[in-house]
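**Backbone shape codes:**
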Amino acid sequence: MKYAVGIDIGGTNTRVALINDAYEVLERVQFATDIHDPQNTLHKIKESIDSFNKDIVGAGVSCPGPLDLINGAVLDSPNIPGWHFFKLTDEMKKLLGVPVFLENDANLATLAEATIGKGKDYRYVSFLTISTGVGAGLVINREIYQGAHGFAHEIANMPLWRNGPSHGIIKPGGIEAISSGTAITNRAKEKGLDVKHAGEVNDLAVEGNAIAKEIMEDAKEYLANGIASLMSLLDPEIVILGGSVALKIDGFVEDIQRRVETKTFDNLRQYVNIQKSNLDEDSGLIGAAALAFTKVVA
């Protein structure tokens, strides 16, 4: 039995998990991330790994972006201001004494899907998370496709709607500003609806509220446009949807499937295969361990 460590460094908490090569999570530790001092967090990660008392082949790490995946460094992430331009993998390798691999959370979730999830029987696996934001990844033959500069599948800013809504650093009409849970909720509040999350907007839409129906229609239609575009460019065998919006809103994934089918060539419609993720919140940790196993053991 071989062991790897999956590490998820978040803007609030850091999670560290010991995972075997059957992709079972054996132990886990969680603690607050020091957003101002990366070395403090790294030493807590080492203490956690030492407590597992197992020889590990390596570690996979996800971290708030933007990231320089080619060189294993954090760039100017707004969620961890003290980590800007920090050479994360180099520092972790020194501290842990094992190979360390940095990836973004969506790519790692995609690798988990391709390894043990709905994509395990496919070579070309695309995954999108529709939650607080919109993220995506592509895995080909169990290997993450990063692109020339490490920014492949960074679709949050994919421009779909001329002069459309925006938020944060997302340009007007970017898919995250239309289809994410944050966008759905914010657009509803701006139009006077008393809602706390996207599920409540959808509930109002089902009840016949015209404003909520328009917002949910935009979210689904533009997301379907984005997925249809990805399918035309990448030709994946399966597109897996995860995240709270996709998983908690009844019929959401099925509706996206129907919409995407109408946006493809008739003779390609049979290949539209959009599925709901069956993995839980550990998918990023499992993907991180899978990355270590793939890079070190292969």
